[in-house]
Amino acid sequence: MRHTRRTRALALAVVVTMAWSLALRWWLLSVVDLRDFPGAAGGQSIAAAAAGAFHGSWSAWLIGLVLPLTDGDIGAAAHLVAWLSSAAMMVGAVLGAGALAGWRGALAGAVVSGTWSQSLFVGLLVGADPPAVGAAWLGVGLAWASQRGGRLALLAAPGAALVVWSVSIKELSLPALGLLALTPVLGRGWSRLVSTAALIGGGVWAWQVLSPGELQHSATLPALSIESIVVGLRAIHAAAPGWPDGLLDQVILATALAGLVPGPRWRQRGIGAVLSVVILAITAAALGGRLCPRLLLSASFGGVVMMAVLAARLGTRRISAVWAIALVGIGLSLDTWAWLGAWSQERTRFADARELPLPPAPEPWARRYQTEAYRLNNGRLRDITTAGGVTLAKTAAAGIGLPPLRDRRDEVPLAISVLSEKPGTLLHPRLCCTASPESCAAQLVDALDAAGMMLIVPRQSAAEPMVDRPFEEWSQRLIDAARARGGLRQEGNWWIRAPTRSGGEPPCPQTAPRGGAMTSWPPKTP
């Protein structure tokens, strides 16, 4: 009876912790300035959904799937997908930690995943990243939970299907395949046999049905070697001053310690800890110069779960495991508090966003995000937002025209124009020009002026390149043509030319049709 009461109390604590964490994420969605739809290629998903092209990608399809719940508000639907993805991450962490450390591990999994800054970060992004990471974490969590035996062994099949689906959403989730392969290692007896059979069956079925053809043939994991492991670990450690987000050094240390602490299922935990570090290190080595915490999210599942298992095993006769888990949660919460403040300040400087109304975090934690290396590393924002483009897209009375930007960031202001029922035109030389580049640039500037649309061209700088090298000359031609006609002025990071006329037709094919609407529900799958 006492054991049953304790189990019920721990289960209730897991539910309460998850509910509180999800409520925090919902509150942040309402107070964080997300006008520029921060997220890698997030504008692409929103623009496709605004055009009614829900079958173009899984991220756009998911937006269409939840669109009725937001009364047709596409921006709100995109953020709802991100919030649900963050919830899926938490459930996966709870299942994975519970598989290795019982109900105490499940509670630690809820606390760690609920307070870890990068788990919260996913809930603030839009695009393919959140559902890809959410499905990966949930799938691996289900597969690992299958090792508890009994009927739970059948969870391996849907877990494998979710992981493969996550890879088809975005290659960001490829490391989850390696974590999925750990499933048989964590089991014992008949549960290992049953879950392995379900894992293979579910994985083969999902790969054939869900995964796109190009991933089936070309997607590969980086080669496993001792050298790549060492390179990856060194890269993570070297990046820590500029990328302290997510405490990756500490996650790796906690993962190693979780494999060393004696106790039940020690052998399984030890093997899982070693392989979790290996997968994280190989992923970091494969990313090379693109290394950042966001791209390590799928590979970090094993480390986050092992950190939770370590917290669950910290209890002693004098200090209960619940208090030890609470202390770990408090430490992670303070780091997340400091990270949120620093991230908000960066976005205020970089993208003209409103600063988050949070008091300063305690000094020992805030100091980690006040280094010169952190302030100079704008890469965390370069790939997920368009500096100043939001304000220009909203203030343009009759739409905007702009050249291609790096990392397809032009899709963010164009998506905002589409959602505002205004034309958004991508001034791409291959799509818009039949004459010489000089005369074509002049014709486009005149056509934008006749249509009453604003020309916006980013100011290029070595420290913050906004345009890829092939389009630098083309962007300069647009600037020169606008300057020759007068009215060109500088506003923040952009050159802009306001129109002097109105009523004409927008030049070039518009990036997305105006007034895109849901033609059927549920939307067709990609």
Question: Which characteristics define this entry?
Answer:
five-stranded mixed sheet, mainly alpha, 61% helix, 24 helices, single chain, 526 residues, elongated
Structure description:
- Mean pLDDT is 83; it is low at 214-221 and 512-517.
- The chain is built from 24 helices and five strands.
- The longest helix has 42 residues, at 74-115.
- The termini are far apart.
- The protein has helices spanning 2-31, 42-50, 58-66, 74-115, 117-122, 129-145, 156-169, 175-180, 183-186, 189-209, 213-218, 226-239, 248-260, 266-287, 301-313, 321-351, 363-366, 372-376, 379-382, 389-395, 411-419, 429-432, 437-451, 472-485, and strands at residues 400-402, 424-426, 454-458, 488-491, 494-497.
- α1 (2-31) crosses α4.
- A five-stranded mixed β-sheet has the order 2-1-3-5-4.
- A hairpin with a 2-residue loop joins β4 (488-491) and β5 (494-497).
- With 526 residues, the chain is mostly helical.
